[in-house]
Write a structure and sequence with these properties.
This protein is an all-alpha fold. The protein is built from 6 helices and no strands.
């Protein structure tokens, strides 16, 4: 079971996410230090959960940072419906002058 659900992460604002990220990194660092010192960890799967949760938070942060921002034109301009697009007149190609045959040219 994840430490924090994805919905909870997306509901947080950026400051809360960065605070939670630093807390999780500190806990992960503490657990890794215990392992390297030769101590036994109560729940070894907790390390994996922490790593994945940190990755989830960072992913959401990057998605929000790289989200394209809408300009005023995009927000104010109404979209055309299919019916409105179909109402536009179709342009016909201009007629080309008829070619004069070489025999007719010679006669003139």
């Amino acid at each position: 079971m994840p430490i924090i659900r994805l919905r909870e992460i997306t509901d947080m604002d950026s400051k809360e996410r960065s605070k939670k990220l630093s807390e999780l990194r500190a806990e992960l660092s503490r657990l890794r230090t215990m392992i390297s010192a030769g101590g036994a960890v109560e729940n070894p799967a907790r390390i994996r959960q922490l790593r994945r949760t940190i990755a989830r938070i960072m992913t959401i942060e990057n998605q929000e940072k790289n989200k394209p921002k809408k300009t005023e034109k995009e927000t104010k301009a109404p979209k055309q419906t299919k019916a409105e697009k179909a109402e536009k007149p179709v342009k016909k190609p201009a007629k080309k002058p008829a070619k004069v045959k070489t025999e007719e040219k010679k006669k003139e």
